[in-house]
Design brief:
2 copies of one chain form a homodimer. The first copy, chain A, is mostly helical. Chain A has 2 domains: 52 residues, Arc Repressor Mutant, subunit A, CATH 1.10.10; 140 residues, Tetracycline Repressor, domain 2 (Orthogonal Bundle), CATH 1.10.357. Helix content of chain A is 69%, strand content 0%. The N and C termini of chain A lie far apart (59 Å). Chain A binds a DNA duplex (18 and 18 nucleotides) through loops. Chains A, B: InterPro entries: Homeodomain-like_sf (IPR009057), HTH-type_TetR-like_transc_reg (IPR050109), HTH_TetR (IPR001647), KstR2_TetR_C (IPR041490), Tet_transcr_reg_TetR-rel_C_sf (IPR036271). Chains A, B: One of its GO terms (molecular function) is DNA-binding transcription factor activity. Chains A, B: It holds the Pfam family TetR_C_24.
DNA sequence: GTCTATAGGAAGATAGAC
DNA sequence: GTCTATCTTCCTATAGAC
């Protein structure tokens, strides 16, 4: 593991981020030391500070990167058309995206409390922006008359919680493929909000 | 805060547990020191070891106590009758119980990864037992012909995730009472699994 | 860019006085 | 039952050599 002195690598930065993401997800931000991240990468602890000013900024950067990627990917998925079709696409998108990034999803929900207040505000804002995308779909469907919910805001939060929960139990190679799982969830989502 | 030497209290034990529960929920197990718990209680750090052999056992004990209470309370709620009525009771029970113990719920989901393997197995078993209670209701309803789900196991996990998510946004004194919130969720749950 | 070495502090847990 | 004091280990972050 230990690197010889003077060796270099253009990809140490990404490797630091990958190691930190995995370790934070597995053991928690506070429980993971900079030494341990460094050991995973194969450098000494001091070398990490070439890539982040401090541990807190590393966490923030990981969360911010994940949320930005999430929003970009959602926007890249087509979001026009009838609300029912938009909702189905959202369900498949959300499950597919989250199942492909279990570690990032995990720390985005678990490590919010370890962010400094200013950093927390930024991530919280991005999270709300994402929720608003789903809420827009539900409102559109209500206006179309195809959806009917007792409370649109609660429906938004409830559906996201249900869908995100898939990351707590899904394991690749299990009984169902990710797409089949999304289909099962879509069946429940559709009926939960159908008019 | 600081207690004078030689003072006593029969209730220090419960206060240690309450302080640990609140601090673990707020900042995370790994981020909270024994000194900080002690300061919250008003004793010195060494005094905590009259109530727990170590920090890890304190966490385990909190989680175990919470899960035992959850299962006892569920069993105390009547669970006979038609599946539809049982499911409605489950929804109201789950939301009511969880909204009354936000800190315990939080650490029961967040701090599992900080448990030693043997402790983790115990808590995980209790959690599955609780999930099985809901799965039984869904299976009964399917047998009765009142429920219809694409996948009963996934429905179980999906519904619990949706319901538990209420703790992430609900604040007492908000727009809706806990009971009104449960009603909104029940509306979605009912339709998600109705035949 | 990475190393070694270290400053400076905080952590979990224990010992013995009262 | 709680205190003070302390052991030992680990932590984040920095300095300066290569």
């Amino acid at each position: 593991m230990a690197r010889t002195q003077g060796s270099h690598s253009d990809i140490t930065g990404p490797r630091v981020r990958e190691a930190a993401l995995r370790l934070f997800a597995r053991h928690g931000y506070a429980a993971v030391s900079m030494r341990r991240i460094a050991a995973e990468v194969g450098v000494q602890a001091g070398a990490l500070y070439n890539y982040t000013p401090d541990k807190q900024t590393l966490l923030f950067s990981l969360l911010q990167g994940h949320m930005a990627e999430l929003l970009d990917a959602l926007d890249a998925a087509q979001q026009s058309g009838p609300a029912l079709a938009r909702l189905e696409r959202f369900v498949h998108f959300h499950i597919g995206f989250h199942l492909n990034r279990p570690d990032a999803v995990f720390i985005s929900y678990m490590e919010l409390r370890n962010l400094e207040p200013a950093h927390f505000q930024v991530i919280e804002g991005l999270r709300r922006t994402y929720e608003d995308r789903l809420e827009d779909i539900l409102r559109a469907g209500r206006a179309e008359g195809v959806f009917d919910m007792a409370d649109t805001k609660i429906a938004t939060l409830g559906l996201i919680a249900m869908l995100t929960g898939v990351t707590t139990w899904y394991r690749p190679g299990g009984r169902l493929s990710a797409d089949e799982v999304a289909g099962v969830y879509w069946d429940m989502v559709r009926r939960a909000v159908a008019a």
